[in-house]
Amino acid sequence: MELLEVKNLKTTFRTEDGPVTAVNGLSFSLEDGETLGIVGESGSGKSVTALSIMRLLARNATVTADRIALRGESLPAKSEAEMRKIRGHRIAMIFQDPMTSLNPVLTIGEQISEAVRLHLGLGPRDARDRVIEMLSKVRIPQPEKRLGNYPHQFSGGMRQRVMIAMALSCNPELLIADEPTTALDVTIQAQVLELMADLQRETGAAIILITHDLGVVAEFCKNVLVMYGGNMVEYGTAEQIFAEPRMPYTQGLLASLPRLDRSERKRLEPIAGQPPNLLRLPPGCAFAPRCAYRMPICDQPVPLYDFGGGHVARCYLYDERARDQRPEAMRELPTIPAGS
């Protein structure tokens, strides 16, 4: 069943230098129990997408969309009071840095119990029992004692577990995890991801995982949305994206990823150039200035091309009109009808 629908989302920030469009016409949907990975370089619009859905952006932001709906209910139509009831309850979010997300002057128990008392209407004793239950679920030892501790008394990995416990304490339908493992070492990353997967199987929550780590996506996500310059440039199942990436940017991300099946002597291939300046995006494809296959047609707005099975990509390499413009090595690529 469809849980979340986002259609033509556009988020623009007013700045002293002019308007900055951080998300430009993004559309996707999410079903119950699904895990969607949103990937891309810093500044591609991943976190802004999540904050736009949650309505947690600063006042200089303008968010428009044809539709943002949770189980068919329009979120932009909700009042701020109604959104406060949804945040932390039906939609929960794990932020990148738990040390700055947790209140340093309140105990862990106070912070989690505040959420469950607000959203679940529990009394003090029941709320305390719920806190202990959640800390136990995220494998924090001696939860009865630790609930009286402050954030600085926990390690980075333990603080992230506390954030997961807080996010899942009210049984959300959707969990948004924004770079939840970035500040953690590899061993702790694996533990946190395993914990999220276990809790997802137990609760049935859908997850949006925002990350730049394609290894995490391959391990954890069913579907993958690749963003660049505020646009979705490719979408498909993890298998489709990793086996047959169609967009040169996606191909570049994968080529820069260390892999065990590569020859030891083969160097990683970085993507040339820098991410685009959102104040001065190039016409047409935002990736064109960095792309090895750039063609004259790339200066025009790029539609999505449908490769079947839900796999779409935004690239003119597959357009009949660009057949004669393609590099010699790409002349035999299939041509695909353009969508929207």
Please explain how this structure is put together:
By secondary structure, this protein is of the alpha/beta class. 30% of the residues lie in helices and 22% in strands. The chain is built from eleven helices and 13 strands. The protein has helices spanning 46-54, 80-86, 98-101, 108-120, 124-137, 143-146, 156-168, 186-203, 214-220, 238-243, 248-255; strands at residues 2-15, 18-31, 35-39, 61-64, 67-70, 73-74, 91-94, 174-178, 206-211, 223-228, 231-237, 305-306, 312-313. The chain has an eight-stranded mixed sheet, with helices on both faces. β5 and β6 form a beta hairpin. α4 packs across α5 (124-137), α5 (124-137) crosses α7 and α7 (156-168) packs parallel to α8. The longest helix is centred in the middle third of the chain and has 18 residues, at 186-203. The chain is globular, with a radius of gyration of 21 Å. The model has no long low-confidence stretch (mean pLDDT 89).
Short description, anyone?
This protein is an alpha/beta fold and 340 residues long.
Mean pLDDT: 89
Strand order of the largest sheet: 7-8-9-3-10-11-13-12
DSSP summary: helix tally = 11
Estimated share of beta-strand residues: 15-25%
How many β-strand stretches?
Answer: 13
Helical fraction equals 25-40%
Shape: globular
Q: CA-to-CA gap between the ends?
A: 24 Å
Derived structural class? alpha/beta
Task: Report on the biggest sheet.
Answer: 8 strands, mixed
Q: Which radius of gyration do the C-alpha atoms yield? A: 21 Å
Topology pattern, helix = H, strand = E: EEEHEEEHEHHHHHEHEHEEHHEE
